[in-house]
Specification:
This protein is an alpha/beta fold. It has two domains: 231 residues, Zn-dependent exopeptidases (Aminopeptidase, 3-Layer(aba) Sandwich), CATH 3.40.630.40; 96 residues, no CATH class. The chain has ten helices and eleven strands. The radius of gyration is 20 Å and the shape is globular. The N and C termini lie close together (12 Å). The structure holds zinc ion. The site of zinc ion has 6 residues, from loops.
């Protein structure tokens, strides 16, 4: 559909995949001591990269590590920044009480709960194995209760895109890989802190949960996880670029029959962990601002367009007004659906 493809748009040409930990840093360890986070994260990262390279021609995949070696957290972010990557995906595994299981995907920001803070602190503690961490991380000390204060002024310029990819990944984990969806979350991760592109950190499951650890350490389990991330990535890329593949079929499920459809396109402009008044100065100059809630996040949209072309024109207009990461989203009867599905239903 060349008609609906906007000019000068965001393109995803380069992805950096970051397998957490490695070398002298094993990450978290399962009940079976042979299972380490660093090994499983690397296996999933390599499988994910393979999927992308095999299936998508125009994307280059880079890795922060391809073998069992120690890489400093700031170096991982530098690899992404210096290569001008369009996306940064960190793969990790979680640890907790024996009964806890499921997947979480994080975006950089201020944590809303102590549980999220604990995950970030555990992941950030990798820097204790680095030689010069005091100088590298603005004085961040993982052992200090006030450690995360350095993140208090942090502004996530890529929050919208990062959240979008994160929620697609969580959906794929749940629907495609049969995982328990623990949600999209926000916390202060040093590895994401300085990146200059949409970035996420995925906790692919709990190594401390016997059944989940077994799944994650199996070839098949790792493949399910990698394939779910790949599918979410592909969907995200297509939507971000406004491209609809010709072979997109079977997208409409039974609840979306032609008879009961009411498709509208809106421009998503802001996502927040707290509600924002629709009269807020944040939205000055923007028409038809509406709120919807998804996965515990308050999301704000502008406009209500009946076709994709007008939606892209409005998107360009709204980006001009300063909402640089605004993007088109689709709804059917007020329910958020993928752009591809909306287009399929309108055919
Ligand atoms: Zn980790």
């Amino acid at each position: 559909m060349p008609d609906s493809t906007p000019d000068n748009q965001y393109r995803i040409r380069k992805v950096v995949i970051d397998a957490g930990h490695g070398g002298k840093d094993p990450g978290c360890v399962g009940a079976d001591k042979g299972l380490t986070e660093s090994k499983i994260a690397l296996a999933i990262a390599l499988k994910l990269g393979e999927y992308i390279e095999k299936e998508i021609d125009d994307v280059e995949v880079l890795y922060t590590r391809k073998k069992d070696e120690f890489v400093e957290l700031h170096k991982r972010a530098s690899i992404a920044n210096e290569s001008n990557a369009d996306l940064f995906i960190c793969i990790h595994l979680n640890a907790g009480p024996k009964s806890v299981y499921g997947t979480e995907t994080y975006v950089m920001g201020i944590e809303k709960s102590n549980a999220n803070l604990a995950v970030a602190k555990r992941e950030n503690a990798s820097i204790l194995m680095e030689d010069n961490y005091e100088a590298q991380y603005d004085g961040y000390n993982p052992n200090s209760p006030e450690a995360n204060i350095i993140f208090s002024l942090y502004q996530n310029a890529y929050l919208e895109q990062s959240l979008e990819l994160a929620s697609k990944i969580q959906n794929q984990f749940q629907q495609g890989a049969g995982r328990r969806n623990r949600g999209v979350k926000q916390a202060g991760f040093l590895v994401l802190y300085k990146t200059t592109m949409p970035s996420i950190l995925i906790e692919t499951g709990f190594l401390t949960h016997a059944k989940e650890a077994k799944f994650l350490s199996s070839e098949q389990g790792q493949d399910h996880i990698a394939s779910a991330i790949y599918k979410a990535f592909k969907e995200y890329k297509l939507e971000a670029e406004g491209v609809v593949p010709e072979d997109y079929t079977n997208l409409a499920d039974e609840t979306d029959t032609k008879e009961n459809q009411d498709i509208v396109f809106k421009i998503q402009i802001v996502t927040s962990s707290k509600p924002i008044s629709l009269d807020s100065p944040n939205f000055e100059g923007i028409k038809d601002v509406k709120e919807y809630i998804s996965g515990g996040w308050y999301k704000y949209t502008a406009g209500e367009e009946r076709d994709l072309k007008s939606a892209y024109l409005l998107q360009a207009d709204i980006r001009e007004k300063g909402f640089k990461s605004a993007f088109v989203v689709a709804f059917n009867n007020d329910k958020r659906i993928t752009l591809q599905k909306a287009i399929k239903l309108l055919e």
